[in-house]
Amino acid sequence: MFVIDGSADPLGHSGDTDDGGGASTDAGAEGGGVHPHGDAAWTVAVPAKMPQVVGSGGPTLTSPVVQAITFSNYDLGSYVDDLVKRIGGTNYWRAAVSEYGIGPLTAAAPVHLAEGAPGSTDDATIQSWLAQKVASDPSFIAPSADSLYVVFYPFSTTIAFQGLQSCFTVGAWHSSFVSNGATIAYAVVPECTQSDKTTLQTVTATTSHELVEAVTDPLPLTTTMAYATVDPDHLFFQIILHGGEVADMCAQWPSSYITPSGFAYMVQRTWSNAAALAGHDPCVPAPAVPYFNAVPRFLDTVQITRQDGTVAPTMGAKIPVGSNKTVDVVLYADDDVGEWTVAAEGVPVGSQNLAFTWDKTTGQNGDVLHLTIHVGGVDAAYGGDPFLVESTQGSTTNYWLGYVSQ
Questions:
Q1: d(C-alpha 194, C-alpha 216), whole Å
Q2: Where are the alpha helices (DSSP H) in 116-250?
Q3: For a designed S-S bond to 284, which of 85, 95, 299, 309 qualifies (C-beta 3.0 to 4.6 A apart)?
């Protein structure tokens, strides 16, 4: 989706464990996970079907030119200028976007406005303001098939987007509009804070999210979207995570926020179709440690309700209220990590609609465990119930989503 929720976690997950911590190396990680022991004979027992962010035929920004725009009362201007200047040549950027046909990002000369940001505004007003600036201010680059404008607002500005308020119910977004016959792709990044990050970390991580999504899906509110949705079998990922663009697919996991080696800023890891299919960590660049996880095997076509109230088919477990069903859970690892522990819990965390019983709570690559799910209620927001499968070894926990409906 074109929105990253910077405050409310749709999973309701505390994020107190992760698979790599706040710092990670991105060296050599362009293809997803790595095999630290170099064991070419290792066979990853990856499930046959894995989630894929699918292209819808729309354009991408294959050679993006990005212009950072800041106001006189914005205090992080030098940092965001530097981030935009440097990010396009990093291994992080190559890992995030190269498989989607995107090349290096070029930073245009930043715009430092003499005017202060308004106390309040909304997305429609921002579009009108940006159109006027592009048409009349020579410091703004001319719109092109690869141009992207990123407008940074200070904390003092409250911004409304489709009924959502900046830093409370929406963190940042990217979109597009047409002005004087030209399509203008843009992103809006408010200056928000999060409890587990500094203000600068929040802004740079959010900026990386929007940059990756804006180049892989620059026209998200049109009929010509690009990489904007998840394959139908795994559509529940998109709906549960509140977005199906490549950054949305990793934004809820605490391990996705890293400061890559040799780069000064926190960024967000994003989804790799290739890494997911290969059984590696699908959020790249991946830490230089083995990846392991557990995936429920769904055989039923079920219904799930979108945020707009429409209903769509996806794969899940069809279980009537008051009944049980046992599903297979496939364990896989991209290197020999031995056994790990599995658990399941409802989403949002604390939900009591589902109860879980395992035949075993430990296993290793290639094992198939059996999870019995009892349905005691239904989440009206989804017309069913999401859940998390957690795989834990030591201080590392990896997560997978599941879905139950009637």
A1: 26
A2: 123-136, 199-216, 235-240
A3: 95
CA–CA distance from 79 to each of 116, 213, 218, 333 (Å)?
Answer: 18, 21, 24, 38
Give the chain's domains with CATH numbers.
3-228 (3.40.390), 292-405 (2.60.40.10)
Polymer length in residues for the chain = 406
3-state secondary structure of 256: helix
Query: Which uninterrupted H or E stretch holds 84?
Result: helix 77-87
Each residue's pLDDT tens digit, 319-342: 999 999 999 999 999 999 999 999
| Pairwise CA distance, residues 224 & 218, whole Å | 9
User: For 140-179, how does the pLDDT look when each residue is reduced to its tens digit (9 = 90+)?
Assistant: 999 999 999 999 999 999 999 998 899 988 899 999 999 9
Integer angstrom CA distances of residue 224 from 58, 85, 101: 4, 29, 17
Instruction: Say what the pTM is.
Output: 0.91
Cβ(264)–Cβ(20) below 8 Å: no
Q: At what angle do helices 199-216 and 77-87 cross, to 10 degrees?
A: 40
Rounded to an integer, what distance in angstroms lies between the CA atom of residue 358 and that of residue 390? Answer: 13
Token reading at 23: 């710092």
| The two three-digit tokens of residue 191, written as one number | 């200056």
Whether cis (ω within 30° of 0) applies to the bond prior to 59 is: no
Q: Strand, coil or helix: what is 213? A: helix
CA pair distance 343, 248, nearest whole angstrom: 24
Structure tokens given for 361:
């709570």
Residue 145 carries which DSSP code?
T
Identity at 350, one-letter amino acid code: G
What amino acid is encoded at 45 in this protein? Answer: A
Q: 């706040």: which residue's tokens?
A: 22
SS (H, E, C) 192-211: CCECCECHHHHHHHHHHHHH
Whether 161 and 151 have beta carbons less than 8 Å apart is answered as: no
348 exposed, middle or buried (CB, 10 Å; 0-12, 13-18, 19+)? middle
What tokens appear for 185 in the block?
A: 């792709």
